[in-house]
Amino acid sequence: MKSDKRVTAGINRIPQVRGEASFLDSLTNYFKYYNRRLLAASLVVVGLFWASWIASFLWGQATESQKNISSKNTFLTAVGNVKSAVISPDAVVLVYVVQEGTQEGLKARNLRSHTEFYLAPPELVEYKSLSISPDGKWVAYIKTEPNQDLGVSCRRPIQGGVEEVLSRSKRLSAVDFSYHSDNIAFIQQSLDRTETQLMIGTINGPFREVIKHKSPSFIGNGILSWSPDERLLACAIKEYDNNPYFRLAIVDIATGRENHIVQRLWSIIESVEWITDGSGLIVVATEPTSRFSQIWKIDYPTGNTSRITFSQSTHKGVSLVANSTGIVTVSSKAISNIWVAASGDLNKVRQVSADKYDGVDGLAWSSDNRLLFSSRAGGRDSIWITQSSLVNQSPLDISPEGGDSGEYHPSVSPDGGFLAYIVERQGGAYLWQSEISRRVIKRISDESLVFFPSFSADGKEVIYSVLRDGRRQIARISINGGIPVTIIEKQAWRPILSPDGSKIACNYWDEFVGVWKLAVFNYNGAGPLFTFEAPGGYNRTVKWMPDGNSLAYIVTHGGVSNIWVQKLDGSAPRPLTDFKKNLIFDFAWSRDGKSIAYAQGWYTSDVLLIQNFRNPGDQPSYLSKRSE
C-alpha cells in the first residue's frame, strides 16, 4: 500500500481550485507527476530488471491513451486489485472494492483531503452494483456470498458508518438511486429463478413491479440506471429466442414499455449509466467478435452509437461525475506466464515463458513435444513455438498481409505438420491453416466469426466454434476448404475432440434450465451423450483427460483458479490442482499425456478516469483495421 500513501501525500501539491472540471484536471496533472516520481524511485530501488518492467507497464498506459485519441486517461489507483469503483457526483470521493485473496473489502478515498479508509474491512463476501446517491452521502450495493449472483441491497454513509439493509430480499442483483427523490430501483429474481422483476419504491418501501421477464428471457444481473428526469430506467434484456445476447432496454416507469433504442447486440453488458443531462448513456459492453469489453456512448433517443475506448484492456463498471465531465471505470489487463509440470506430479514444474501475456488465448502441443502458445511479446497477438526442450521460443511467420489485429487459438494436426488458428481482422475472426515448418498459409473457411479450432483424429478436418445469426454453433470443414457442415445445431461452444477422436466435449446451453453445462456429443453431433453442471459459462475452458474417460475444466473462486475433473460415469467432480493463488487462463496436455502446460497469472486492475469523451471523434487511421 506504499503507492497509495505516495498518492495521498502527493495530492497535497494539487492547487485547491473550484469546479469539477478544474479539480479533475488537477487530479490528472498530479497522477502524471506521481507516475514519473514512482518510475524514478523504482529505478533506484529495484534496478534495471524492474525498471524494464515498469517502463513496459507505463508504455501500455500510453498506448491506451493513444488509442483513445480524443479522451484523456488517468489511473486513480495503483494497487492492482480493484474489482469495481464509483465516484461521487462532485468528483471528491472515490469508493472502490478491493480483493484481498478470497475476501473483498470496501474502501473510500477522499481525493481532496487525501484520506483513505475502509468502509468495510475484507471479509468473505462480494460487493456488486455499486452506486452513490445524488447527494453524495451514501454508497449502495448488492452484498452476496462468494461466487453468487444474488444478494441483499445495502447502503453505508460514504464518510463511514453502520451498514443499513435496504431490502430483506436475498434475491437482488442491482440497485440504483433516483436523482431527485428518495426512490430506489432494483432487480429481483424469483425463488425458482424463472422470473426477473424490475422494482421501484422508496427507501423504506413499499415497492412495485415495473416489468417482469420469464425464462428463457430475463433482465440482466447488476445492470441498472435511473434517468435524470426519473421517468426511465436503463437495463439489459437477454432474450433466448435463438439469440443468446444482451440488448439495451429503456423502460418507461409509468407504462412499463420497453424501448430498444439500438439494434446492436452484445455478448455481455457490464454496466450502464445515464449522462446527467439525459442526452444519452455510457455503456460498458463486449461485442460478439471481441475478447475485450469497451466503453460506448449511446445517444438518446436516436440510438447513435460511438465507441470511446479502443484498448486491449477489459473494462468493468462505469460511474460519472456531475455534468458528465469524467468517467470512472476499472481497467484490467492479464499478466500471464506458461508453466509445464509432470502429469503425475504437479510439484515438478518449471516456467517456460516470461512475457506478460503468454498463453491467455491458447496453448497446444505438437507431436514432437514442442509447445505453441499465444503471446503479445512482439507488441501484437501472435503464435509462438518452443523447441522440444521448451526453450528458444520464436514467433511463427503465419500472419496474412493486410492487418495487425493478431493470430491466436492454435491447434496442431495429429502428425504435427500443420497448424489451424484464428486470424483477427477487420470485420471478424477467420479460420486459417499453415504448415509449421515453413510459411505456407491459406484461409480454409469463408465464415467470419470463427473461434477455437481443433483437428479431427485423421487430420483431414477442423472442427470449430462459429457465430451464425446470433447463435453459437459447432461446425467442421475440410482442411482443403469447401462447405462447412454444422455438427451441433443447438447452442454449443468451445469444442475439443477426445483423444480417440470419436467424441466432442463442449459447453452446451440447456434451454430448459437456462444454464451452460459441460456436454459430450458424438463426432457426428448426436447427443448430448452426457451433461454435467459446473461453474462457468459458455466460454469455460474444457479439455479431455489423457485417458479419454474424464473432462477437465477451470474453476475460479476468490481470484484463484484450479483444474477440476469430471468423470463421464457421473461421479462427483474432484480437484486436480490445489493452487492457493493466481488464475489459470488455459491448459493443455502433451500428446503422450506425460506433461501438462498451463498459462497462469493474474489481472492487474485499477481505477481509470476518462475525460473529454463527449465527442469521441474519428478513430485514428492505424486503428481502423482493428475488429476488437
In short:
This protein has 628 residues and is mainly β.
Describe the protein.
The protein is mostly beta strands and 628 residues long. It has a domain at 334-604: 6 Propeller (Neuraminidase), CATH 2.120.10.30. The chain is 9% helix and 49% strand. The chain has a 7-stranded antiparallel β-sheet, with no helix packed on it. The two termini are 34 Å apart.
Q: Which SSEs are present, and which pair or pack?
A:
Blueprint (H helix, E strand, L loop, with lengths): L1 H9 L9 H48 L4 E4 L6 E6 L5 E8 L2 E8 L4 E9 L2 E7 L5 E7 L6 E7 L6 E14 L5 E7 L5 E8 L4 E8 L3 E9 L5 E7 L7 E7 L5 E2 L8 E7 L5 E7 L7 E6 L5 E3 L6 E7 L5 E17 L2 E7 L11 E3 L5 E5 L6 E4 L8 E2 L11 E6 L5 E8 L2 E8 L5 E3 L6 E6 L5 E8 L2 E8 L6 E4 L3 E6 L5 E8 L4 E8 L7 E3 L9 E3 L5 E8 L2 E8 L6 E2 L7 E7 L5 E17 L17
Antiparallel strand pairs: 1-45, 2-3, 3-4, 4-5, 6-7, 7-8, 8-9, 9-10, 10-11, 11-12, 13-14, 14-15, 15-16, 17-18, 18-19, 19-20, 21-22, 22-23, 22-45, 24-25, 25-26, 26-27, 28-29, 29-30, 30-31, 32-33, 33-34, 34-35, 36-37, 37-38, 38-39, 40-41, 41-42, 42-43, 44-45
Q: Examine the secondary-structure arrangement and name the CATH architecture of the domain at 334-604.
A: 6 Propeller
Low-confidence region ranges: 1-23, 30-69, 616-628
Instruction: Give the beta-strand count.
Output: 45
Largest sheet strand order: 6-7-8-9-10-11-12
Quick one: overall form? globular
Query: Could you estimate the helical fraction of the residues in percent?
Result: under 10%
What is the mean pLDDT?
A: 84
**Number of helical segments?**
2
What's the Cα radius of gyration? 25 Å
- The CATH topology annotation of the domain at 334-604 reads as Neuraminidase
